[in-house]
Amino acid sequence: MRAVLQRVTEARVQVDGTLIGETGKGFLILVCAMAGDSEAQAEKLAAKVAKLRVFKDAHGKMNLSVRDIGGSALVVSQFTLAADLRGNRPGFSTAAPPSEGERLYHHFSQALVKEGVPVANGQFGADMAVSLMNDGPVTIWMDTDAL
Questions:
Q1: Number of domains making up the chain
Q2: Which of 27, 55, 79, 108 is catalytic?
Q3: How many degrees, rounded to 5, is the angle at CA 146 between CA 79 and CA 34?
Q4: Is there a domain that residue 143 lies in?
Q5: pTM, whole model, 2 decimals?
């Protein structure tokens, strides 16, 4: 699985002008299941996200996790993280098929909750409007193949 984490002070997602998910201080997580990914990879990614120390401690050092600060996450599906950029028009054939991608997207969100991180979600497959207030900014790309 692939993910882009953005440390945020707030983030929201809307579908057709209706707010469907939001978070305060924590992460906006764009996540993509790749072809061949498993529940174990979703759980591995969730565990890493929950423990990642990128929030400031009392001395201003990135030394705290999202759990340490009592933060939360807004998780949004993002199949374009699977983009193959060999040509000028990206291809997405390495993304998991939609039904599998949706299942793993929800499994990742549930695994993150089991790790102690409150989660709000976007809507899989929808045309979403995402807004956020970056904090830092701190943006981290993750791939379970590299963890």
A1: 1
A2: 79
A3: 25
A4: no
A5: 0.96
Tell me if residue 79 is catalytic.
yes
Q: Which domain holds residue 54?
A: 2-138
Residue type for 114, please? K
* CATH for 55: 3.50.80.10
80, 92, 94, 144: which one is catalytic?
80
Contact between 81 and 3 under an 8 Å Cβ cutoff? The reply is: yes
- Active site annotation includes 92: no
> Any catalytic annotation for residue 144?
no
Amino acid making up residue 84 = D
pLDDT digits (tens, 9 = 90+) for 56-112: 999 999 999 999 999 999 999 999 999 999 989 999 999 999 999 999 999 999 999
